Amino acid sequence: MSAGAGLRPWFETYLAAFNRADFPAFGDYYADDVIFHGQAAQLTGRATVLDFYHMVRSHLIERVELLSFVGAPDGLRIAAELRTTLIALRDWPDMPTGPMRAGDTRLRVSFAMYDIADGRFTRIRTAGFAPPRDSAA
Amino acid sequence: MTPEARFRAYLDAFNTGDWDGLREYYAPDVRLVIGNGTELTGRDAIMGFYSKVKLQTRRTIEILQCFAEGKTLAAEIESEFLAITDVPDFAPRPMAKGDRYYLNSFVFYDFEGAHYTRIRAATFRREFRPAAGS
Q1: pLDDT tens sequence for chain A (137 residues)
Q2: A67 CB near a chain B CB, below 8 Å?
Q3: Is 0.90 topped by the overall pTM?
Q4: Which domains does chain B have, with CATH numbers?
Q5: Is B53 on the interface with A (CB under 8 A)?
Q6: ipTM, 2 dp
Q7: Into how many domains does chain A fold?
Q8: C-alpha to C-alpha distance for B26 and B96, rounded to whole angstroms
Q9: CATH code: domain of residue A35
Q10: Do A129 and B35 make contact, defined as CB atoms within 8 angstroms?
Q11: Are B69 and A71 an interchain contact pair (Cβ–Cβ within 8 Å)?
């Protein structure tokens, strides 16, 4: 991964791996001790983050679309606007960001900040931009 | 001037209360969408909004990081709101004089030339600190 101009395609490759639930591929973007401050969880470590996503994907389909991207010239930071679509595969009453029933869809837009070192994310933080929009099955 | 330098000058104007200078950073039809759902369009709307906030709180903004690519600047900022009077209707929560409220936000600033055309902010973290003794 090169600094600056190469950051966006590198990030888009990450999102593509995430969206097809290719855990080894997108997990390779996380540093061993990555810090994850998401809206649904606060986690530390690649294994913990991947365990979390395994659990999430057992309940729902998650797709993330890149709306805006700003890469730092030093190649060490990314700011992204992301639209996430969640489709519940089964009832999930304890879903961290609010209960979902099988077939429900939830849309949300978030701003995310990524810190990068040695070609891996060391910290990921997200903030909700727009309130989630739910559509019942 | 780089986008980052312009942004620092913009917030210097904000923090020092240079409202005439601040206004010049905005495009006439600038759109501002902030984390609490407030949407404002136009310089006058934004300046009017800030003027009201200024009557109730002293807001100081610190840049934690900023960087730009193309025509967008991304920033992480921390805003301190110090209540200079009781503010029962302060948007995040009621404030008493002397209370402080902190917002850490991720913000995108779209720009054309020297003007911000669209500003969008999402709140990452909030912290309320009551006045000492309250």
Answers
A1: 545 668 999 999 999 999 999 999 999 999 999 999 998 889 999 999 999 999 999 999 999 999 999 999 999 999 999 999 999 999 999 998 899 999 999 999 999 999 999 999 999 999 999 766 777 76
A2: no
A3: yes
A4: 3-129 (3.10.450.50)
A5: no
A6: 0.91
A7: 1
A8: 32
A9: 3.10.450.50
A10: yes
A11: yes
